[in-house]
Amino acid sequence: MAQQKFMRLFAKWHIWLGWLVGIPILMWTVTGLIMVWYPIEQVRGTHLRVESEQVQLPASLAPPPVNGESFNEMRVAMQDGRPVWFATRADGRVERFAADASGEPLPAVDEAYVRALAAERIVGGAEPVAVEQFSADESPFDFRRPVPSWRVTLEDGAHIYVDAQTGEIAAVRTRFWRVFDFVWGLHIMDLQTRELDQQSTFNHTILVIFAILAVIGSLLGTMLMFRRRKARVKVPA
Question: What are the structural domain ranges in the chain?
């Protein structure tokens, strides 16, 4: 008798929890389906990047032109056919210097440079629909990085972002990437930052609460599967 009472109570809780978490569970399922619809490489626009030939750095490089200045990081890489020093200051600003005997600062990344880079490194980048410049404070939402940038818009709606400090392609945002980004925000119940690498986003309170309720509802449903039902007695006609 007591067991039947508890089972009826569990069934009641299961129904109420089902109403409470039914919509989030359906949302998680639908958004999960959308996110796996295309390969992640296609979402990230990997297919739009033109493979470039790997060029080795020269055996001898000029030392970084620090001139007594303080930099948090110094790295060297080949860019536009020549070695370049990338110097990161304490405030995050990046400056470029020629890695040769001159050590001269390289000119700022302009529209001509961005157009040439897109034409060389991006499929369809030779005929962009628009080329726009953004400051660090007005970074577009689908870029979401606090650095000055250039955005190249392709005919198919893809956005190619070039870091205005380093002159490198920083991100490729396809149309489906933007859909994926919105759906990901729904999936983790956070439409503001939507960043997986931010702990405050992926385990925020609302998501944790609904996940716990969904687990409890599932456990109650599993327990109810073992509920014994009384056999119905057939009444003669």
Answer: 2-42+179-224, 45-173
